[in-house]
Amino acid sequence: MDKTPKTELLALLATYAQRAETLLEQWCTPAGAPDSLVRAIHHGVLDGGKRLRPALVWMAYHAAGGRDECELTDRAAVAVELIHAYSLVHDDLPAMDDDVLRRGRPTVHVEFGEAMAILVGDALLTRAFELLADHPEAPSAVIAGELARAAGGAGMVAGQVADMDLCDLPEGRDGIEYIHARKTGAMIRAAVRMGAICAGASDVVLNAVTAYAENVGFAFQVVDDLLDVTATTESLGKTAGKDERDEKRSIVALLGLEATQTLADTLTQKAIDALAELGEDADELRTLANLLAERVH
User: Fold this and answer.
1) Which pTM was predicted?
2) C-alpha–C-alpha distance, residues 297 and 294, integer Å
3) Domain 5-296, CATH 1.10.600.10 — does that match?
4) Which of 42, 161, 190, 286 gives a 20 to 30 Å CA spacing to 271?
5) Under a CB-based contact definition with an 8 Å cutoff, are residues 44 and 124 in contact?
6) From CA 225, how far away is CA 122, in angstroms rounded?
7) Dist. CA 290–CA 219, nearest whole Å
8) What angle (nearest 5°) sits at the alpha carbon of residue 274, between those of residues 194 and 176?
9) What is the pLDDT of residue 231?
10) Per residue in 238-279, pLDDT tens?
11) Region at 200 (left for phi over 0; alpha for psi -120 to 50; beta for the rest)
């Protein structure tokens, strides 16, 4: 297989993705859930995606000095992915982004109906916090707080509200950055911080990985905006060109393709520079930042 940024990214994430898939199969549904709900949850959660957010939890755990297998870190990784999956299921609904394709398959509401899709999202959101609440170690409460703030009304939900023009936002780049920092960046930031907290990170290390995550999160969405313009539906696994068609705010529409690519590169370098004091334990995070930025090449 030829090496491309995409194949190298998938190779970097492969071990983490396999681990995430195994744990998701084990933990994504509570005992006693109706079979119909379980089938819909599995459709929305399993057998798809790069599992970027769980990988960030584990990579940050290692970057902050974590060495041994850690069940709390595993639970944190799964909880982040369950929140992400719930957000995608709800985001695809007709009342939201109204999309029929996700990861190359029909979206949950297309396959199981709108009511079930809403309930799938509800079940995934609550299951994420159940996983953390069921763990006895003291940091689990801190980690749950990180996740709640990132996913809640001042985080990811605020980003979705803004993205749908349901609140007032400044024009231009400030408004776009508000959306991206919350809709996408908040969960990436939480994933990295949760992993570092599981490792008992010092304030210095926690600040470093937080700065990394904030820059990577913005760069990730900037590249997504580029891909929405330049990639095909087949390569994306979701409908291409939706931002322009739906007249969504986009950094590409504001800056143009060349300046947007330059911005992605600048943000990526800032992310890597933030890890300067962490040494080789953070090499995977550095590599990941570069490969995420190179998805458009």
Assistant:
1) 0.93
2) 5
3) yes
4) 161
5) yes
6) 28
7) 10
8) 80
9) 66
10) 565 566 666 677 899 899 999 999 999 999 999 999 999 999
11) left
